[in-house]
Design goal:
The structure holds two protein chains of two kinds. By secondary structure, chain A is an all-alpha fold. Chain A has twelve helices and two strands, in the order αααββααααααααα. Classes of the chains: A mainly alpha, B alpha/beta.
């Protein structure tokens, strides 16, 4: 009997395993935190050098629209105005999200609420296939189909925000759809039954009960789609026109933060202002993805509070 | 809602051998104080039931007894088992749970076969002898009054069993480890009356060789099966006595009101 007493106080194989597992987990997470910290530090130090070392005014960087990092204006200040790219990036992102959201949520509702099992089973791989297509292929299709189409209808070159939006629409559609499907699937069955048992129609149930309950998840899906659109470089670069001009309308050639980075990164010398200015663009991108992340987390937390009793 | 004086307390002394006791156990969930100064002695080879309204803290208290509140709540005070304070930080909690088993409200068998469910913990503890495993499988299922119903289907999924059978499987799973003490958290509240009475019979039989502590909402159940009863109210233990005394001549007004249904 005293045997048990001593066993209660001594470590055993179980506690040692526990400790071992803990050590492995902590070292893995430590490595990843270190990696993230290094990336953040590197981009921040490079991106901030534009303002600290090269003396560019941060406010001018955000609000001016002349981007010639190699030249100086008549007062001798370097011309590093990123406003056109920031505006274009936001335009294509928001337009693509606005366009894709109704289609995505509609598809998700069809897959979870309306289609029979076989229909949903057929649609699932179709949506997943869209995710898997490489972005260069999307860009190629956009370049050879959408750009001539826009040119034919609206005139001009065909390159611009509208073409970028349409390409991004197809690219974020599956992201938003599959996340929406997950969110709708996680609405408990008894919500539907409770609503139907009160005499609500199927449409009323979907619109007033299921979409309400799934709202935080749907918003998260949209934000994730926007994050993807904001960060997409290659496909957008192929159809946006790559002119560093303030976009006047949806069909004038423009340039996003990411497309600027991909076109210019090979043409600059490490450590010079033109190179540092590109890093500043990368810093803006990083900051934006951080912001999208925070929004998603905030929505998630609010959703949790709502769902608690 | 009636208010009762928490200082009015009646805790009877236990004459027999004590299997487990708590001294001034306090539980905090963050800032909220869930259990106040709970001190009880649980007699060996007897059934003790913990009764009280929802939110009175009886389940929280039960979960302290085999350290299931670790990482969920802050538990202070002493929990004595074999003259050892098992609430101390340096205690090997896995060893504690090996001797103090627990069965939950909802039957929660693993998605494995009946055999694998019973042998799961035994294999984890390094028991590999085929003969011993087979023997423990059979005796634990017999003790839980499930053997005759499942002896031909031991390799079928445990999830195919009925709710009552699943719960008895969970009891069998716990006693296969040969614990000293069995904690049950409303084990019959999700079951129909027939399954409930089977569980109660099982517990009666088990109390010959196990110390059983059971949380229950059902006062008839407490009076039917338990030897001792503790009444919890808003985190305080109001009364603790032999079951027959509690149900026939309660010492405290709150207990009397609760038992007679004139409460709250």
């Amino acid at each position: 009997m005293d045997d048990i007493q001593t066993r209660l106080q001594k470590s055993s194989r179980a506690t040692r395993q526990d400790y071992f597992g803990k050590v492995i987990c902590y070292s893995c997470i430590g490595l990843i935190i270190l990696l993230v910290a290094c990336i953040l530090y590197f981009i921040a130090s490079k991106g901030l050098a534009t303002f600290t070392k090269n003396g560019v005014n941060f406010w001018n960087f955000l609000t001016q629209s002349d981007w010639k990092p190699g030249d100086v204006d008549k007062y001798g200040n370097p011309q590093v105005g990123a406003l056109p790219m920031i505006v274009t990036s936001f335009s294509v992102t928001i337009l693509a999200a606005l366009l894709a959201t109704p289609f995505a949520i509609g598809t998700a509702i069809f897959m979870t609420e309306i289609a029979n099992k076989r229909g949903a089973k057929f649609l699932q791989p179709v949506i997943e296939l869209l995710v898997g297509i490489p972005s260069v292929v999307y860009g190629f299709i956009g370049l050879s189909l959408i750009v001539p189409f826009i040119r034919g209808i609206f005139g001009g070159t065909g390159f611009g925000i509208l073409s970028g939006t349409l390409v991004l629409f197809v690219m974020v559609l599956p992201t938003i759809t599959s996340l929406s499907v997950d969110s709708l699937k996680s609405v408990p069955m008894h919500y539907r039954q409770a609503s139907l048992a009160l005499g609500a129609t199927r449409w009323q149930t979907i619109y007033k009960v299921i979409l309400k309950a799934a709202a935080p998840g749907l918003l998260t899906a949209v934000i994730f789609g926007m994050a993807r659109a904001f960060g997409e470089a290659l496909a957008v670069q192929m159809v946006i026109g790559n002119a560093i001009l303030m976009p006047k309308n949806l069909i004038s050639p423009a340039s996003t933060l990411t497309s600027k980075l991909t076109t210019e990164i090979g043409n600059t010398v490490m450590g010079t202002l033109p190179n540092n200015a590109l890093w500043s663009l990368a810093l803006v991108l990083l900051f934006m993805s951080l912001l999208f992340n925070l929004i998603v987390r905030f929505i998630g937390r609010r959703g949790n509070i709502k769902n608690e009793r | 809602m009636k208010t009762y004086d928490f200082n009015q307390q009646y805790i009877s002394k236990i004459e027999q051998e004590v299997a487990l006791s708590t001294e001034n156990v306090q539980v905090h969930y963050g800032k909220s104080h869930a259990i106040f100064d709970a001190s009880l002695d649980f007699p060996r080879f007897q059934i003790t039931s913990l009764i009280g309204a929802s939110g009175s803290g009886k389940s929280t208290y039960l979960r302290c007894l085999n350290r299931m509140n670790d990482r969920i709540a802050q538990v202070d005070g002493k929990i004595l088992y074999r003259n050892t304070d098992i609430n101390s930080k340096t205690i090997n909690v896995y060893e504690v749970r090996r001797h103090i088993g627990m069965v939950f409200q909802r039957p929660n068998p693993f998605a494995k076969s009946i055999r694998e469910n019973i042998l799961f913990a035994l294999k984890n503890n390094g028991i590999n002898d085929k003969k011993e495993l087979q023997e423990r499988l059979e005796t634990s299922l017999r003790d839980a009054a499930l053997w005759d119903e499942v002896k031909d289907d031991l390799d079928k999924s445990a999830l195919a069993l009925s709710g009552g059978q699943q719960q008895r499987l969970c009891i069998a799973r716990s006693i296969a480890m040969h614990p000293d003490i069995l904690l049950l958290d409303e084990p019959a509240s999700a079951l129909d009356p027939i399954s409930t009475s089977k569980i109660e019979e099982t517990l009666k039989l088990l109390s010959k060789s196990y110390t059983i502590i059971i949380v229950t909402h059902n006062m008839q159940q407490a009076s039917r099966i338990s030897d001792y009863t503790a009444f919890f109210h808003m985190g305080h233990i109001i009364e603790y006595n032999q079951t027959k005394n509690i149900f026939t001549a309660p010492e405290i007004k709150a207990t009397e009101d609760y038992i007679s249904g004139d409460f709250g």
